[in-house]
Write a structure and sequence with these properties.
Blueprint (H helix, E strand, L loop, with lengths): L9 E2 L5 E6 L2 E7 L16 H13 L14 E5 L20 E3 L3 E4 L4 E5 L6 E4 L1 H5 L6 E9 L6 E6 L7 E6 L4 E6 L7 E4 L10 E8 L4 E5 L2 E2 L17 E3 L7 E9 L5 H8 L11
Antiparallel strand pairs: 1-2, 2-3, 4-18, 5-8, 6-7, 7-18, 8-17, 9-14, 9-18, 10-11, 10-17, 11-12, 12-13, 14-15, 15-16
Length: 286
C-alpha cells in the first residue's frame, strides 16, 4: 500500500494491529507479521527502507513483540539494567521501585540490551529499601531473571527478600552441586529449600530463571522447565517487610538482565513467552 507524506507514518497500538497514519489521518491497519512498503513517497519524507526498517525492528522482532500475552497483567516492575555504573536502576513500568546501586555495579552486554555486571569481590549489589519493596506486594508473586554467571567457584545469592526476622525468599547458587536453591520461610526466621535437582548450571551461559510463590507453594524453573526438586507445598510468609536485593549483599559473580516481578504466579504459556526459545523478550513487547 503506497504511503506518502512527510510526518510520522506509524504508531504502535497495544492491541493486535498497528495503525498506519499519514499525518493525523488513519490510512490503514496492519496485523502483526512481516510488512513492506513501496517507494511511493513525497520529496523529503522517509524512505521506503527507513519505514520498513522501523516497522520490522519495532513490531516483528520476537525479542520485542513476541506474543502480546497476559504478561502485562499484574506486572509490577521490569528492569532492563541499561544504566551505567553507579546510576539508579529504574523500573520500566513506573517511577516506583527503583534499585539503588551499592558499590558501583558496572554495565555489560546483556541478553537483549545491556545488563548489570556483579563482582563478588567488590561487594556489589542492587537494593530496594524495605518500605518500598514491601509495597510491591508479596502474596502471589513471580520473578524472572536472565543471568549469566562469570564464575561458579563459590556460593552466590542471586535475589532475595531475606532481612533478619522478615525472611520470605532467597534464590541462590550452591557451588557444592552446581545447582540453584530457592529458600523460603513461613515465619520470617526458619527456612528450607527446593533445588534445581539434576539441572546443573555453569558459567558463560545465559539462563532464564523463574520462580513462583503462593501462600502454599513454591516452584523453580530454568529455561521454561520445571526443575523443582524437594517439597514444593509449604506455607510461605506473607506481608514481609524485608528489603529486596539482587546480588544479596555482595555475593554474586554474574551478568543480570531483563528482570520482571509480578503480583501473580505466571502461567506455563507466560513462562514460554518470557523464555522465547532462548531469545528472551523485553518490556513493553509482550
Amino acid at each position: 500500500m503506497p504511503i506518502s507524506g512527510t510526518s510520522d507514518v506509524a504508531e504502535s497500538a497495544k492491541g493486535d494491529t498497528t495503525t498506519i497514519r499519514n499525518g493525523s489521518s488513519v490510512v490503514g491497519v496492519r496485523p502483526h507479521g512481516s510488512y513492506s512498503v513501496d517507494s511511493s513517497r513525497t520529496a523529503g519524507g522517509p524512505s521506503a527502507t527507513q519505514m520498513q526498517t522501523k516497522f520490522i525492528s519495532s513490531f516483528d522482532d520476537p525479542k520485542y513483540y513476541g506474543s502480546r500475552s497476559s504478561l502485562l497483567t499484574n506486572l509490577i516492575a521490569w528492569y532492563k539494567f541499561n544504566e551505567v555504573a553507579g546510576a539508579v536502576r529504574r523500573n520500566s513500568i513506573s517511577d516506583s521501585f527503583s534499585f539503588t546501586d551499592n558499590n558501583t555495579v558496572a554495565r555489560a552486554t546483556g541478553l537483549i540490551n545491556y545488563g548489570a555486571l556483579f563482582v563478588d569481590a567488590n561487594n556489589e549489589y542492587l537494593s530496594i529499601s524495605s518500605g518500598s519493596a514491601n509495597s510491591m506486594g508479596d502474596e502471589n508473586v513471580s520473578m524472572s531473571i536472565w543471568l549469566k554467571f562469570t564464575s561458579t567457584s563459590s556460593n552466590q545469592v542471586i535475589a532475595e527478600m531475606w532481612d533478619s526476622g522478615q525472611r520470605k525468599f532467597q534464590l541462590m547458587y550452591y557451588a557444592g552441586d552446581n545447582n540453584l536453591r530457592l529458600y523460603t520461610s513461613n515465619n520470617g526466621t526458619s527456612s528450607n529449600y527446593i533445588t534445581s535437582g539434576l539441572t546443573t548450571v555453569s558459567s558463560g551461559t545465559w539462563y532464564n530463571i523463574v520462580f513462583t510463590l503462593s501462600s502454599s507453594e513454591r516452584r523453580l524453573y530454568i529455561n521454561n522447565s520445571d526443575v523443582s526438586t524437594g517439597t514444593t507445598s509449604v506455607t510461605i510468609k506473607s506481608s514481609s517487610t524485608s528489603s529486596l536485593s539482587i546480588g544479596g549483599v555482595g555475593e554474586l559473580d554474574a551478568i543480570v538482565a531483563e528482570v520482571g516481578y509480578w503480583n501473580k504466579n505466571v502461567s506455563t504459556s507466560e513462562r514460554s513467552s518470557i523464555y522465547n526459545s532462548g531469545a528472551g523478550i523485553t518490556y513493553p513487547g509482550f
